[in-house]
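Tutorial handout. Part one gives the primary structure; part two gives the three-dimensional structure as tokens.
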Amino acid sequence: MSLPTTNLDDRKFQDLVDEAKRMIPQLCPEWTNHNLSDPGVALIELFAWMTEMSLYRLNQVPDNFYTHMLNLLGFEQFPASAARCDLTFWLNGSAKEVPIPAGTQVTTAGSIGQSYMFTTLEDNTVRSPDLMAALTSEGDENFVDVWEDLKLGLSEVACFPRTPVTPGDCFYLGFEGSLAGNAVQLTIEASAQGIGVIPDRPPLVWEVWQGEGWVEARLPDLPGRDMVADTTGGLNRDGTVLLLVPNVHEPLILGGTRAYWIRARLTATSDDQPGYRRSPQIRRVKAASIGGTVRAEHSEQITDDYLGVSEGRPGQVFSAARSPILPRNDAETLEVTHNDVTESWFEVADFVDSAPDDTHFCWDSSTGAVQFGPLIRYPDGSSRQHGAIPAENAQLRLTSYRTGGGAAGNVGAGTITSLRTSIPYVTSVENLRSATGGVDPETVANARERGPMSMRAGGRAVTVSDFERLTSEADSRVGRVRCLAPREAGDPIRLLVVPAIKEPPETLHLDHFALPDDMIASISGYLDERRILGSSVEVGTPYFQGVTVAALLTARPGRPGAVVRERAMRTLYDFINPLTGGAEGNGWPFDADLNSAQVFQILDAVEGVERVDEVLFFEYDLRNQQRMGFGKEMVKLGSDSLFLSTNHQVVVR
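Part two.
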């Protein structure tokens, strides 16, 4: 049970008025009219009201006080997290190699509203591809070398060898070097032999080998962009195919040839996507790199930030020029220069284990404060220096750091388009997919709730609630988490993590909930230091059960049907949602089934709805984007699952 909040002064308005009236005979005996109509009494009541407001403020503990108290106990507010995305740099020219260095700055178009800066995190080089091999295969076997035919262009090559054309047949192109991160344009000469398909929706997919499997490489369709991913009509006419190779492209031996492979694989057909009746025929293929993709984050790089001069005393504190500070990498540290000798110091979370000669410092991500070790006096009268002290007159400098972050960086696809750093041969840049992962810094209100919970439970992960709390602390991008205890001895502890996503509920799809590798690493590393000996932890996501609601409503007289339908759709997407759903609005509960009575109730409360006539649920396959089974009035949810709204259908009459 928590301690009661101290009430420094419990006097209320009437107490203050009565106290003032009791003092009138002593201080002003000639004042005899104490009725409410008297102007003096009106002034007493006015000042009593003002005094009550002052007492109310006195009894409120300021946010700064809470913040400082939590800092004294070793708790810090979560800093902001930066949104990340892939930036594609488009080239204009035929250079053999075009380097795109780390630290390249790109901003969103700022003609209307505020612009946001993104900085590339790694180096990449766009290289001219060297095509060296071509194969066809029946599934994953029976490879046939067709490179000589394509290289000379004397005869046509059937991309998919079996007759009739069978899903799983592949056409391979092998390259001498890795094309990781490149935008590759294949120029294809073909004849219209692959009849039977819809040219804009052929049943084939382009993939690259990533070391552990084949992954899709395609150009997303963005509205307003002239560039088209495939102009060949499914390899049926002369044209180009534009592919975005992922940042990992590994070699593989196929048909006795070791190369970096890209393949076109025939997929299964459906009623609205007919297949090939004959295989496409290709005469010649050429490859060129017309762009490169680099990982970037919503941040600004600050270099050579001069902090000041050391006074040679313990516990010195200096401030960085900018804040908040994003998580540091190995190259971002503090340099101390004394007598022309420069030494790099090491950042630590605290000085508990720091010896007097350890060159350690603490760096507050929220405020940017850089602190050196204190001198602590112990009960026996001895004093110990925790961490070394920079020598007097030593120059202190931060090599570099990144500042920025926040939910504002979660910008949409095609919005990061303005180059601030000039690169030869680069004409334009864009983000083909939305930036994700940006989270605002923790509020004081949330820190006030989290601090006492952490104090009671300590820093060890023992119970299920401990694991859930520590996972939330490990990374600010965690939106929700559920811990599943092992069913049998030796089984891992399963953590089901839902990332915090700021996208509108109606636009959410399965890919939004994928956990970035660095997020999994940060959670795993944080828990590894706090789990009990012998336990193992498995970090993943819940199984997202797609669900579609079909509802029939009757609108009240005079209410526009389109407006009522839009309100009902918004209500459904908000209610059946992993992050904002449920009765409490903090995410659909684990283990909570979905039944028609709940949906009847929320739809009936929508403004403009007279009655709800019918509600049915359909399970939805989120991977294949199709409805499954028949309508039902209840959908059950597994212990490791959450509902995800998709493709709701609302009819208003």
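Part three, for discussion. Residues 13-60 form one domain. The longest helix spans residues 39-58.
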